Amino acid sequence: MFEEVKSVTAIAHELKTPLCLMRQLALSLDLATTPDQRSRMESRLIQISDHTLRQIEDLERMSRLQDGLFTMEPVSIRGVCDSVLREITLLSRLEGCRIHTSYLNKTRLASANRDLLHSIVYHLCLNALHYTNDNSCSELSVSEHKGHVRVGIRDYGPALPTKLWHELQSGILACPPIHIAMRPSSSSLGLYLASRFADQMHSRLNAIRHHDGTTFFLDLLPSTQTMLPI
Length: 230
Fold this sequence. Notes:
Blueprint: H1 2-28, H2 35-63, E1 73-76, H3 77-87, H4 89-95, E2 99-103, E3 109-112, H5 114-129, E4 138-145, E5 148-155, H6 162-170, H7 188-200, E6 206-210, E7 213-220
Parallel strand pairs: 2-4
Antiparallel strand pairs: 1-3, 4-5, 5-7, 6-7
Helix pairs in contact: 1-2, 2-7, 3-5, 5-7
C-alpha cells in the first residue's frame, strides 16, 4: 500500500510541474512585447502540452502491458530513432540543443514493439536535451554488442545517483522516484516508464556512468525476419 501511494505521489508531482509551467506561460502571453516573444511562448506551450499528453498516453500503455496488446515484431531501429528526432525537433530548436546520431549497426531489424521502443527513446532523448548546451552535444547511437542491437543515449549531465544506478543494474525501477538527486532536470517518470517498457520487450534499461555524464541503453535481440512493405 505504501509503495502504491508513493508511486501515485511521484506521478502526480511529475504531471503537476508542466501544468504549472503552462499556466505561467499562458498568463505571460499578454506581457510579450514582440511577436517573436509571443511566438516562442506559444511554441513552448504546444511543446509542453504535447509532452504531458505523451506521458499520460504512456501511463495508459503501462496499465495495459499485461493485456497482450504489445506484441513483438521486426522493427527498424534506425527508423524509430529518426521518428523520435523528428518529433523533438521543435523542442531542440527552442532550447538551442543538439542530438548527434551515430548508426553503426549492420543488423537493421530487432525484435521489439515499435510503440514501446519509440516511447523509450523519446523519454531518454528528452532527458538528454536538458543537459545539452553550446559546449556539448548529446548522442543517440545504435550499435551491436554481444549479439544484440544496442540503442544508447549519451548525455553530459551530473552524475547518476548510485542508488538509482544500482536499481537499474538489478532490474526495473521499483517505482518512480519523486526527485533524482543531482539530476533535477531528469524526468523520473520518464525513466520509470522506459524501464517498464524495456522489461515488456524482454530487455532492460541500463546505464553506464561516465565522469562527465551518463549513457542510458537497452539491448534488443536482432531479427532476421523480412519486413513486408506497407
